[in-house]
Write a structure and sequence with these properties.
4-stranded antiparallel beta sheet; alpha+beta; binds L-homoserine; 318 residues; Ribosomal Protein S5, domain 2
Length: 318
């Protein structure tokens, strides 16, 4: 990965870090894509007092802990602070654009935004891989484990595969032209910790073989513009069957999206948000059917149609 080319040595910076869809069905904890339509904005300023302080949190979720150790953005910034040992401290304000417990990578976006904004204040900034590792420590506060499938796409943009935890290798996967992601966020809260806790510790051999084949097929299909392989591969036989009971209307929403022409449809991260991949020509029909089926289950949604390719987190104000 190339060195981070952000601005250098500023007094204050605001970073936008996008939402993301973790897992993409078949890539549990290792695959994700950024959703640039919404995100968190994190402002970090130099302060005379050393250390890290979270001064406030506003936006769609305002009641997050302000103690840096207990806050995902604060924990990520503490990790950067220990490594950088700057001659100044950090004060941080968090503006949440991603609802808590939505399955859209809100905790990851806050952690990523914090380290991208703080990095712009350093005279000798870190590269993106170092920022990824700092942000992973923040993610662990929120979900209990340092998984990377939301952190990596929020930081790098696009569809991203990450291999390894202690020594993560990040690979941006190309997405065939004309493919959109349809995102439907039902107005309900689902705890990531709870959605992880219900998962069985063992996987049946037949499911292991299918899941491996599907992930390999999906990624091969992305590299070779093979939409049939993407359609076949976008089929999670391990995690989705265990979690779909947590989302009212899941089966109807999924079936309706496929009937409307989606290549595949599954749970975004730990849920309850659902996503589908579809060609641009049918994306609106897919969205309408998904929204209607959630509505039939008495649930209102926010929804977006986005291109999967995007730039990832960036400094937007100084
Ligand atoms: N990979 C994670 C999960 C994403 O599915 O539990 C949620 O943060």
């Amino acid at each position: 990965m190339s060195a981070w080319q952000g601005p250098r040595g500023l007094e204050r910076a605001t970073a936008f870090a996008p939402a993301s869809v973790g897992n993409v069905g078949i890539g549990f904890d290792i695959l994700g894509f950024a959703v640039d339509a919404l995100g968190d904005r994190i402002t970090v300023a130099r302060s005379a007092k050393l250390g890290v302080r979270v001064t406030g949190c506003t936006g769609v979720t305002a009641d997050l802990p302000l103690e840096a150790e207990k806050n995902t953005a604060g924990r990520a910034l503490l990790a950067l602070n220990v490594a950088a040992r700057p001659a100044f401290g950090f004060e941080m304000h968090i503006e949440k654009g991603i609802p808590l417990g939505s399955g859209l990578g809100g905790s990851a976006a806050s952690a990523v935004g914090a380290v991208v904004a703080a990095n712009a204040l350093l005279d000798t900034p870190f590269d993106k891989l170092a920022l990824l590792k700092f942000a992973m420590q923040g993610e662990a506060v929120a979900s209990g484990s340092p998984h990377v499938d939301n952190i990596a796409p929020s930081l790098f943009g696009g569809l991203v595969l990450t291999v390894g935890i202690d020594n993560p290798r990040v690979k941006r996967i190309p997405v065939p032209a004309g493919i959109c992601a349809v995102i439907a966020h039902p107005h309900m809260f689902l705890s990531t910790k709870q959605a992880r806790a219900i998962l069985r510790r063992e996987v049946a051999m037949a499911d292991f073989v299918w899941q491996t084949a599907n992930l390999a097929g999906f990624i091969s299909g992305c590299y070779t513009d093979d939409l049939d392989l993407i359609r076949e591969g976008l089929n999670d036989v391990v995690i989705e069957p265990q979690r779909r009971q947590l989302i009212p209307g899941f089966s109807a929403v999924r079936a309706a999206s496929i009937a409307a022409g989606a290549l595949g449809c599954s749970i975004s991260g730990a849920g309850p948000t659902m996503f589908a991949w579809a060609q641009r020509t049918v994306a609106e029909a897919v969205r309408d059917r998904m929204v209607k089926e959630f509505g039939n289950n008495g649930i209102e949604t926010d929804h977006w149609i986005v291109t999967v390719e995007s730039d990832g987190a960036r400094v937007v104000a100084q």
